[in-house]
Amino acid sequence: MSKNIQAIRGMNDCLPQQTPLWQKIEAVLRDVASSYGYSEIRMPIVEMTELFKRSIGEVTDIVEKEMYTFDDRNGDSLTLRPEGTASCVRAGNQHGLLYNQTQRLWYMGPMFRHERPQKGRYRQFHQFGVETFGMHGPDIDAEVIAMTARFWQKAGISDKVRLEINSLGSNEERAAYREALVAFLSKHESALDDDCKRRMLSNPLRVLDSKNPQVQAILTDAPKLSDYFGEQSNAHFNGLCERLDALGIQYQVNSRLVRGLDYYNHTVFEWITDSLGAQGTVCAGGRYDGLVEQLGGKPTPAVGFAMGLERLVLLLETLGLDKDARRIVDVYVVMLGQQAEVKGPALIEKLRDQLPDVRVQLNCGGGNFKKQFKKADKSGAQIALVLGDDEITANQVTIKALREQAEQKTIALDKLAEELNTVL
After folding, report:
1. What global pTM score does this model have?
2. Nearest 5°: phi and psi at 104?
3. Which element (helix H / strand E) includes 291?
């Protein structure tokens, strides 16, 4: 007997009992993005490897050890996309969407990183992302943050997430700060862990993001990036804070908040939850004004964010907010008898025309009433409709509640849609 083939570690199936919650989250994300006037863009899953090396940074963890990279038959180095921003910028440059234009775009789909799989972090994961182009001011920064806040509201988790913001200043200001930070860290190198020692030379700002308590204690006396800001950087960040205050969006300024990708400048932000343990970041983003030019386009300001859908699903499940999304059937139709089995499906098609939002499942495969009602109960439906030959002859249908105590009743078929409207 041959061995069963299993899914690749860290690349998970989404089973039928899980997909309704995914669909609910995806629908809310689409609706919120559309309500702000954003348009969907769809990019390939596979891109040229150079795209990510140039955008994310060759010394980042993603490029150094997490990308799925391979050579195709032409000898080109290709990579399964580890994130969506670089692909979106590439598409915008390639199709002339960015120069002297403003764009508000969103996308959703799978990303790939070869990490150690753990709860809330997988090798194939899914992101919803927003990218905006052509707008310089803090107004668009505030808008994309407001969009995320509205999503939390629609999902019913506003009280379970908190917003942290920071500014990374301009590239020139960050370069000056980098020198000061490396000089400071060099004095304390013996107290740094191996990961921070490596980052001190390759990507020193990431040391600020260390989760090591001993390193965090050392950083208390480290120079602050904001001390290197000029008038323009300060004005941009202050403008963002003023707009968030006016919107009533609460936030905390975290001077140690940095992003793991090289392309960010000025605004960075994260939405964090305390309900998922170590995997607490559910959304992150910021401004990346230099990336479009870096990838071959004209200088174009840009800001965006991405959120991991697996973590959102996990968060809603952890908070017990997934129950309503579990039901995939509202009405189950029990049929018994030759006439019922032949004519019943046509009657139910008319019902679907009248109530397009009601999910109706027909019994298939036969079975007596007892077996069919077991199937009806297992389906999760609220209501069972009973169609037998007697009901077909009399143009009637029997309605039976499956989830609550209610009297069974028989009504005329032409009154069925009206009745279901009142009970569902």
Report:
1. 0.87
2. -125, 110
3. helix 291-294
